[in-house]
Write a structure and sequence with these properties.
By secondary structure, the protein is mainly alpha-helical. Helix content is 75%, strand content 0%. It has one domain: Orthogonal Bundle (Proton glutamate symport protein), CATH 1.10.3860. It is built from 22 helices and no strands.
Length: 423
């Protein structure tokens, strides 16, 4: 009787369901590719359901967190610390990608003639890159209307709106307490809706994985296996070594954190989108002892400014193109790529195909590099998107805990207790 109960309970665990769905998606994609490609709307539909709820969750969390702060200077202090952390760690990710690409040389031996590449395949991304400037980026932070950020799901615009409303409610004093309480209740309703939608997570992971394998095929990995393997290896080293050391310095185990977030990590893996797990990440970080106000500020900001996986991909893809086309790059040119990537990786956040847009903008600063070389990685980009999303997700989880500790807004006893599985 107990075995039967345990068997049923195992099937009810979300990460077990998602693992089974991912495996089933790979099988269907490999043996029935035509059917698998037709399943794409299932994965897209689930991601859209989650993204539909991201904006109201971020807004409610930020507004309630700021409105409840006695010291409004804390908002600027938390934001400043978060941005400093993001810049330092993101730069480390770019540098590691540069070092590994120079060491492993994944593009060496391809001997591709740039004149044989079709620039039309990457024209869409290069046009977007040229359209993205610092002025446009700043202006795009300001929504056209109050409802515009919710309609388009722009996290940075929602962040700006939430901060504005949070300060406004706080300025009302006692009169604003009822409004803040109402927004807190609204946030709980949205989180409850997320829990309902999450029951469809295995279905979404199945559809997304089936489409990826069915559309591109496992065989398509072989020609570019070195680049894919290099990106995954570098991302793993970054997470285990860099983020692992940061976690140890902050007084918690990265491995236990990964185990605690296993449901969300598998969801990100299946859907190739870190946004699909954003609501659950915010909820779980609060369970770990991080304050609601810090979580509400750091996580949404990190999803736009702390893209460690994207940074690793950008420098490695740029050097891969140079190596594959036999384009020699000086140390100065490589450092230029790193410096520009520090800016472009933030400038295209929230844009569809942001990884490719930022790559195009970065390549443009080194005229010797053929932008048409992006066609070499276009076909396998989907297989690396999972790696970027997972690395970005883990990076933001660690960042939130670290900033919470810096602010004295982390219940360390609760963190230890929860990660140890005692609560």
């Amino acid at each position: 009787m107990s075995r039967q109960y345990s068997h049923r309970s195992l099937h009810r665990i979300l990460y077990v369901q998602v693992v089974a769905a991912i495996v089933a998606g790979v099988v269907v994609g490999h043996f029935w590719p035509g059917t698998a490609v037709a399943l794409k709307p299932i994965g897209d539909g689930f991601i859209k359901l989650i993204k539909m709820l991201v904006a109201p969750i971020v807004f409610c969390t930020i507004v309630h967190g700021i409105a409840g702060m006695r010291d409004l200077k804390k908002v600027g202090r938390v934001g400043g610390k978060a941005l400093l952390y993001f810049e330092v760690v993101s730069t480390a990710a770019l540098a590691i990608g540069l070092i590994v690409a120079n060491t492993l040389k994944p593009g060496a031996g391809f001997n591709v003639d740039p004149r044989t590449l079709d620039p039309g395949k990457v024209a869409e991304y290069t046009q977007r890159a040229h359209a993205t400037s610092l002025t446009n980026y700043v202006l795009d932070l300001i929504p056209a209307t109050v409802l515009d950020p919710f309609a388009h799901g722009d996290i940075l615009q929602v962040l700006l709106l939430g901060i504005l409303f949070g300060f406004a409610i706080s300025a009302l004093g006692d009169r604003g307490e009822r409004v803040a309480h109402g927004i807190e209740l609204a946030g709980k309703v949205v989180f409850a809706a997320v829990n309902i939608v999450m029951r469809l997570a295995p279905l979404g992971a199945f559809g997304a994985m089936a489409f990826t394998v069915g559309r591109y095929g496992l065989a398509s990995l072989l020609p570019m296996a070195r680049l894919i393997g290099s990106v995954y290896l570098t991302s793993a080293l970054f997470v285990l070594v860099v983020l692992g050391l940061i976690a140890r310095a902050a007084g918690f185990s990265l491995w236990r954190l990964l185990v605690f977030l296993r449901d969300e990590l598998l969801l990100v893996l299946g859907t190739s989108s870190s946004e699909s797990a954003l609501p659950r990440l915010m909820e779980k970080l609060e369970c770990l002892g991080c304050s609601k106000s810090v979580v509400g500020l750091v996580v949404p900001t990190g999803y736009s400014f702390n893209l460690d996986g994207t940074n690793i991909y950008m420098t490695m893809a740029a050097l891969f193109i140079a190596q594959a086309t036999n384009t020699p790059l000086t140390l100065t040119q490589q450092l230029t790529i790193l410096g520009v990537a520090m800016l472009t990786s933030k400038g295209a956040s929230g844009i569809t195909g942001a990884g490719f847009v930022t790559l195009a903008a970065t390549l443009a600063v080194v005229p010797a590099l053929p932008v048409a070389g992006m066609a070499l990685v276009l076909g396998i980009d989907r297989f690396m998107s999972e790696c970027r999303a997972l690395t970005n997700f883990v990076g933001n989880a660690v960042a939130t805990i670290v900033v919470s500790r810096w602010e004295g807004e982390l219940d360390r006893e609760q963190l230890t207790r929860v990660l140890a599985g005692k609560d």
